[in-house]
Specification:
60% helix; elongated; mainly alpha
Length: 318
């Protein structure tokens, strides 16, 4: 690996790291990767061949860690591979390109309108001061403006989005975009929408904990199991009093199946039942239905076989 050099006495030389490295890259990178980058940045001033094995010994890091670190910084654009070695890119130039390079998803008119919005500017200023200690990188401004345009959030929701990700210790673009997309799919536009969404999520969490307790599960529900609970509570509108009727069937099962529970609860929803009374009446009617004999059953037995479906079997044992 060959790195370029400035002809300067080592004892008097300095290595200046742009501030954007600390605001944009430091908090997201593995500590060993940061160590490798800083040393490469330092060595880029000197016109010598640097071998990966030598880096491994100098930094006291495994060879694979050095290779992974170089790949990481290359993927993030801080290193550019050449036929022999790498170029350490100019961080300030990268950030300038992010800020001034036209975005195909936003017109010049859109950007101007956003910039002229006082309330939006205030929101961005709040995000800068509360979550970036007043030193938010310029590239974030374009991203925030784009999210305003794409998702239609009001200013309070945008601030709440950053606060949520900050509290999760995940204040990076990919995570923020993922959360924003989820909120958008749940039709969140205003802070009232967000408040209602939080209330629904809290209710689902309460019901999930109640189900865990009823089923005596020593683990948290999986993502797929929580999706079932969300379906029963938010989509179907069923509270714990109705869900518990289905849970009672699982008392004799060693490993209760959420798929089985969903089949029962979905059956009630398809019949349009909204109350415990309606469901209990339905269950009693199902239990009292006459049993149909199987015509193909051999007469060698004195008892007719009962060809229950899963639902028939469920209702016959409640």
């Amino acid at each position: 690996m060959k790195l370029e050099q400035n002809d300067m006495s080592l004892i008097f030389s300095q290595t200046n790291i742009p501030d954007v490295f600390f605001t944009e890259y430091l908090s997201y990178a593995n500590g060993d990767y940061v160590k490798v980058y800083l040393y490469l940045f330092f060595l880029s001033k000197y016109n010598k061949d640097v071998k990966i094995n030598d880096l491994s010994k100098k930094l006291e890091l495994p060879l694979k860690t050095i290779q992974d670190a170089i790949k990481y910084w290359e993927d993030n654009g801080l290193l550019i591979r050449k036929n022999q070695g790498f170029i350490v890119t100019n961080l300030q130039e990268i950030e300038l390109n992010k800020v001034y390079k036209p975005k195909i998803t936003m017109s010049a008119t859109d950007i101007k309108k956003v910039a002229e919005s006082k309330s939006r500017a205030t929101a961005i200023d709040t995000i800068n001061n509360e979550f970036f200690q007043g030193i938010m990188s310029p590239s974030w401004y374009g991203d925030i403006e784009l999210w305003f345009k794409k998702y239609g959030f009001d200013e309070e929701v945008m601030i709440a989005l950053f606060r949520y990700c900050f509290n999760k210790s995940a204040l990076h673009r990919s995570y923020i975009s993922t959360v924003a997309e989820a909120w958008y799919k749940n039709k969140i536009k205003t802070f009232s929408d967000l408040d209602l969404y939080y209330q629904k999520q809290e209710k689902v969490k309460t019901i999930s904990n109640a189900i865990k307790k009823k089923l005596r599960l020593s683990r948290n529900l999986s993502e797929y199991e929580e999706a079932y609970v969300t379906k029963w509570n938010i989509t179907f509108g069923y509270d714990m009093d109705i869900i518990e009727i289905a849970l009672k069937k699982t008392t004799s099962k060693f490993n209760p199946s959420f798929e089985y529970l969903d089949k029962i609860i979905s059956d009630w929803h398809e019949h349009g039942f909204k109350s415990v009374d309606k469901i209990m009446t339905y269950i009693e009617n199902q239990k009292n239905k006459p049993v149909q004999k199987n015509e193909n059953t051999k007469k060698t037995s004195s008892f007719a076989q009962r060809p229950y479906t899963d639902l028939n079997n469920f209702y016959s044992n409640i």
